[in-house]
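Q: My collaborator sent me two sequences in one message, no labels, and asked for predicted structures for both. Can we handle them in order? The first one she listed is below.
A: Yes, handling them in the order given. First sequence, followed by its structure tokens:
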Amino acid sequence: MNSVTEKVNYIKGLAKGLKIEDDGDQGQLMVQLIDALDDLSHDVEDIDGRLSYIESFLEEILGEFELLASIFAGIDLDDLDLDDLDDLDDDEDLYEVVCPNCDTVYYADFEDFDSDSVYCPNCNTKFQLTEELLEQIKED
């Protein structure tokens, strides 16, 4: 008996087994209380379903935000000139990089790899780009 609705159904069964009817003051009170519990249990299930939808939606938004954060890692947005955004190459290839320390996935272009060292935007760990890692990045 896990859900609120199951518990209310159990109480309804008990009331029926005890032959509680809505005749008399106490019987009428019990029937009204059980009906109110039944309505509340359906509302709780509805809210629970909506909450699950919102949680999955927020997880999706968080994933998109993390992608954007990895793309803009290291860029000081205060110094960003919005007129320069028109000059960006829309066809620029981004490559998926996985930090060997914290397994954070972020995206970078090969201009980010001018030196042999890369800093993870999440844990700030410096790691070397080996030929093997570069080949793996190019293949992905």
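Q: And the one she listed second?
A: Here it is, processed independently of the first:
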Amino acid sequence: MGVSAISKIGGLYYQNTDDLALYTEWFNRQQHAICRGVVLSRDDKIRRDLIKDLICHCYLDMDKFAAEQQLELTENNIQFTSTGRLLVRRFCRIFDRYLPVQQQQKFSRII
């Protein structure tokens, strides 16, 4: 809950408006402040789970992941070294199909 908050219910993600005045107006009227949403496809869910596992654990057991997602893969795992952990976000970008190729830098920089 809050301005520009992103929430998830099942396979649905939605985001509140990032306009503070509009959010406040809708809140005061006891209306939802949702400005957009998306229902995840199977592909989206697989990519989400893969990125989450890599970012949270810096490791992915490919055999276990493939079994859970009913996929067929040829290699066993991905694991980041101590130094490689600094670049895990950069690596995960290759799995994000919605990230524009030439995304403008808006948040924390990657080394």
